[in-house]
Design goal:
By secondary structure, the protein is of the alpha+beta class. It has 6 helices and 5 strands; from the N terminus they run ββααααβαββα. Helix 5 links the parallel strand 3 and strand 4.
C-alpha cells in the first residue's frame, strides 16, 4: 500500500447546487481522502458498497428472494461497468435491443460479443413505442 504522506492531493471540496438553487459544500475529511486514494477491494470500498446496498434496499424495496442475493460493485467508470455487465449477460447469438442512433461505446462493447443487434428508432423522448412494437412483432424466436 502506498504511503498516504506521498499522495499529492491534500484535500477535496465540492460546491454543489441542489434542487431549488440551494448551494451545498461537500468536503472529504483527511481520513476519507486517504481511504479514497488508497487501493481497495475489487468490488469497492466496503463502507461505500454497504451504503449503496442499503440504498438499493430502501429505495427499491426488492422482494425478499431478490434481496437475499442482492449485491453491488463499484467500477472505475460507466463504460467499464457497462462492458462488465455485457460480458456477464450477453453471448454469441444473443439478441440485444439497441437505440438508433446509439452510443458508439455500446457498439464497441457489443460487437465483439457476437450478439445480434436489433435497432429501435428513437425520438426526443427516447425509444419510439411504435418502432419497438414493430421490432417485437417481427421478432423471430429462432
Amino acid at each position: 500500500m502506498p504511503n498516504p504522506s506521498t499522495f499529492p492531493i491534500k484535500g477535496l471540496r465540492f460546491d454543489l447546487q441542489r434542487a431549488g438553487g440551494r448551494a451545498e459544500e461537500v468536503a472529504l475529511s483527511p481520513e476519507a481522502l486517504r481511504t479514497a486514494l488508497q487501493y481497495s477491494p475489487t468490488r469497492g470500498l466496503p463502507k461505500l458498497t454497504a451504503w449503496l446496498l442499503e440504498q438499493q434496499r430502501r429505495e427499491h424495496a426488492p422482494p425478499e428472494a431478490a434481496a437475499a442475493g442482492l449485491d453491488v460493485a463499484v467500477t472505475t467508470g460507466s463504460q467499464d461497468a457497462f462492458s462488465r455487465a455485457l460480458d456477464a449477460l450477453v453471448g454469441p447469438g444473443r439478441a440485444v435491443l439497441i437505440e438508433s442512433p446509439t452510443y458508439a461505446g455500446a457498439l464497441a462493447c457489443l460487437e465483439p460479443s457476437g450478439a445480434v443487434l436489433a435497432e429501435v428508432e428513437t425520438d426526443g423522448e427516447g425509444l419510439r413505442p411504435d418502432a419497438l412494437r414493430a421490432v417485437l412483432q417481427a421478432w423471430d424466436e429462432a
